[in-house]
Amino acid sequence: MTTSSTSTSDSARSSQLDEELLDTAIRWHLRLKDDSASDQDRHSFQAWMNQSEHHVVAYQNAIQLWEEIELPALLLYQQRHQQRARPRSLPHRPQKRSMRWGWATAAVLMLTMLLGFEFWRDPARMDRWMADMSTPPGQLQRTLLEDGSTLLLDGNSAIDITMNATGRELFLRRGRLWMDAAQQQRPLLINAGEVSILVLGTHFSVSRFHSRTTITVGEGAVTVSDAQHRQTLLSAGQQLTVQNGEFGDIQEVDPLLALAWKEGRIIFNQASIDDIVEQLERMHPGRILFNAQEFAELSFSGSFPANQPDTLIDTLVDLAVMEAHYLPGEMLWLRATSTS
What we know:
Elements lengths: L1 H32 L5 H13 L1 H28 L16 H20 L1 H4 L3 H6 L2 E2 L6 E4 L5 E4 L4 E6 L4 E13 L7 E5 L2 E15 L2 E14 L5 E5 L2 E6 L2 E2 L3 E2 L2 H4 L6 E7 L1 H11 L4 E3 L9 E6 L3 H10 L3 E6 L3 E6 L4
Parallel strand pairs: 5-6, 14-17
Antiparallel strand pairs: 1-4, 2-3, 3-5, 4-5, 5-7, 6-7, 7-8, 8-9, 8-10, 10-11, 10-12, 13-15, 16-17
Helix pairs in contact: 1-3, 2-3, 3-4
């Protein structure tokens, strides 16, 4: 017991020292990148490097990590300032100091999040922790509810369930569900953001992705309403998307294709980048970075296994649709393939 405790303690101290060294190395790297770095700064840095081989290794790791996050950090900085025009290139050393420290600050913030905040690495984690029922990325879960309904949760989904003598209510925090609703006198209501779905019968799917909610009816009917009490009726073979609170047009769909995900297949039909990322977020365990404006002309079709995100990503890369960069913290950075 004593040996195990000592080993664990030593491991924890070693991990803490490694993180402290990496933090120091990153600070040196940032200092030397600054135009104001002096000869004394460089002399002090060299003295620090000469103190230990561990310092050299830490600095090499800091440079590698910085290079991996530098361009995504610039992308985040540009998105934050709503720069619509895509630059011809992403420079490593912008000329203006104010711009450089703008994205450098973003990079430091990203690095801090990568190293210290699991919630930022995995945006769905809080929803999954707080939900009554949830699934990790890439895993479906089928459950028989107490009212006799069958519920299927897609990967990276989270819901709350409330059932009492007067009604049944599900709140979809994120992700996608399919339900074969049991017929009862008690009403069944599904809430997803500002959208409410009153279930009239029997097979249907609800998907929530950021500000977009999609309802697909396989059999029976549902009534969809919003915060302004607008309502519309969906019947079997119909699909409705509500984006930023706005109802789209009702689409006629083939339920077997639209609901193929519950059988383990993902079918894209002229999909946009949002459609692709929505699916990847259900399959991939980390945050996905992309600039939607780079993919404005994208229209993609294909069929893929629902539990193999790498197959989908590799296909998109092989077709020269995009470049995929894997970053620390299981982040995935998608870039449009240059046509120049």
